[in-house]
Design goal:
The structure is a single chain. The chain has a single domain, classed as 3-Layer(aba) Sandwich (Rossmann fold), CATH 3.40.50.150. The chain has a seven-stranded mixed beta sheet, sandwiched between helices. By secondary structure, it is α/β, with parallel strands linked by helices. The protein has helices at about 1-10, 20-30, 45-55, 70-80, 115-120, 150-170, and strands at about 35-40, 60-65, 85-90, 105-110, 125-135, 170-175, 185-190. Strand 1 (about 35-40), helix 3 and strand 2 form a beta-alpha-beta unit.
């Protein structure tokens, strides 16, 4: 099946995709919350995009990817499975993308160092009772490890600060789920 081929394609091209446990949990959320509109930040090759779209024939997704090669691969994969009428892919830096649409779910799965920027930039696009889900918030278990590599240390510190940002954010309530590489699920507190 195409989904199995996507896993191989990701591995061969060294492109990260959502871990199976995280994706299964996300799909459960989509079903339970009756999600119909999704904004995805970080398309990659379209693996999670396609998986989410296949959860319900009424789901519409806009997904943003800044890497030209990954974007083209995602376009090809979405077309191969016949989802181009429900999935809109945008080539661009999500920090610079402006959307008027509102979404039931926003998935942040892009440059981890920019999670906070993405959250703040797109929170206005969240429907009432919508959810913002962020992948990789445990960052391979490195958050509590002593790291000597300078670049990795900076990235881990940004992820730690993002978690603190979510915990302290008064207008959202965030739950952290230790599944896969960790998910955060944020919902407006005033809803």
């Amino acid at each position: 099946m195409l989904l199995d081929n996507l896993v191989v394609q990701a591995r061969e091209n060294n492109i990260p995709i959502m871990q199976a446990a995280s994706l299964a949990y996300l799909k459960k959320i989509i079903t339970e919350e009756k999600v119909k509109t999704i904004l995805e930040i970080g398309t990659g090759i379209g693996y999670s995009t396609i998986n989410m779209a296949l959860e319900d024939d009424n789901i519409k997704i806009i997904s943003v990817e800044r890497d030209q090669k990954r974007y083209q691969m995602a376009c090809d994969n979405v077309t191969k499975i016949g989802l181009e009428d429900r999935v809109q892919l945008i080539l661009g830096d999500a920090k610079e993308v402006s959307l008027a649409e509102k979404f039931d779910l926003i998935l942040i799965d892009a440059a981890k160092s920019s999670n906070k920027i993405f959250f703040e930039h797109f929170a206005k696009n969240l429907n009432p009772n919508g959810l913002i889900v962020t992948d990789n918030v445990n960052f391979y278990g490195l958050l509590n490890e002593k790291i000597t590599n300078r670049n990795l240390k900076q990235l881990v510190n940004k992820i730690k600060k993002y978690r603190i940002f979510l915990e302290e954010k008064k207008d959202f309530t965030t739950t952290f789920v230790d599944v896969g590489d960790g998910l955060s699920i944020s919902k407006r507190s005033d809803e």
